[in-house]
Amino acid sequence: MDASLSDELREPSPVRQSGRPKANQIWIAVGAGIALVTALSGVAAAVFEFHDDSEIQREVFLNIPSPIKLAFYTVMPILLLWATVQLSYRVKNWERGGPDRRKTTPKNLKHRLADFRSGVYMQTLMREPGAGIMHSLIYFNFLILLGVTTVLEINHQVPEELKFLNGDVYRGYALIGDLAGLGFVAGMVLAIARRYGPRSWRPYRIAIKSKPEHLVINGVLLSIGVTGFGAE
Fold it and tell me: What are the residue boundaries of the structural domains of the chain, listed by start?
C-alpha cells in the first residue's frame, strides 16, 4: 500500500457535520437543475426562434411538428428527474458508510490520478480483449455522441450571430459524430453477438447469465444508433 495512503488511513476520520447537505441531496439538486435547463431550452427555442441561415448546417427538429417538440421537452425533464431520484437511492446507500479522509496531496496525487484513469478507462474490462473492445466501442463513442448532442443544443439556443455549427466547422463536427455513431453501432452489434451469436463467440460466464430482457435492451440501444443515421 502507498505510504501516503497508509498515513491517511491512520488519521482519525473526520466527524460528519449534520448541517452540511448530504451527497444524495446534492445529486438531486444537480439532476433537478439539468431537468430544469432542459425544459427551459425548449421554451427558449420556441420563444426566440434563433435560426441559422447557412446552407451547410444541422437543422434541429427538421419537419417535426410542434406537438412532438412539446412532448419531447415535456417528457425529457420528467425522465431526467425520475433517473435522478432512482440514482439518488444508490448515493444514499453509499452514505451509509463512515466518513473517510480522501484528501489529495502532492504525495498521493500520482497514485490517485492512476486510479482515476483506471476507472474511467475501465481497465478491468480491458483484461479480456473481446470485452475490452466491445465496451470501449460503446462507452467512449457514447461519450462522444453525448458531447455532439450537447454542442448541437448549445448552438441551437444561441443567437444567430453566435451560431458556429455551419460551413467547414459543421463538416468536421458531422464527421466526428458519424464516426462515433459507427463505432457505437459496431459495439452494440458485438454486444449482441457475444450474448446471442454462435456458441464459439459466447463466453460461458455471459451465456449462463443472458436473459431475454438483455436482448431487448441491446436492441433498443442498437436501434438508437441506426435510426440516428436514418434521421440524418
Answer: 22-99, 122-232
Q: What is the CA 91 to chain-centroid distance, rounded?
A: 17
pLDDT in tens, 194-230: 888 777 777 777 777 778 888 899 999 999 999 888 8
How far apart are alpha carbons 102 and 49 in whole angstroms? 47
Q: For residue range 43-91, what is the model confidence (pLDDT) as tens digits?
A: 887 777 777 777 888 888 777 888 888 898 899 999 999 999 999 999 8
The DSSP symbol for 55 reads S
Q: What is the pTM assigned to this prediction?
A: 0.71
Q: Which of 70, 7, 75 is nearest to 43 (CA)?
A: 70
Rounded-to-integer distance, Cα 163 and Cα 169, Å: 11
* Cβ pair 86, 36 in contact under 8 A: no
Q: What share of the chain is helix, strand, coil (3-state, %, to 5)?
A: 70, 0, 25
Q: Does residue 160 come out as left (phi exceeding 0), alpha (psi in the -120 to 50 range) or beta?
A: alpha
Cα angle 156-50-61, degrees, rounded to a multiple of 5: 50
What is the C-alpha to C-alpha distance for residues 211 and 213, in angstroms, rounded to an integer? Answer: 5
For cell 463536427, the residue is 173
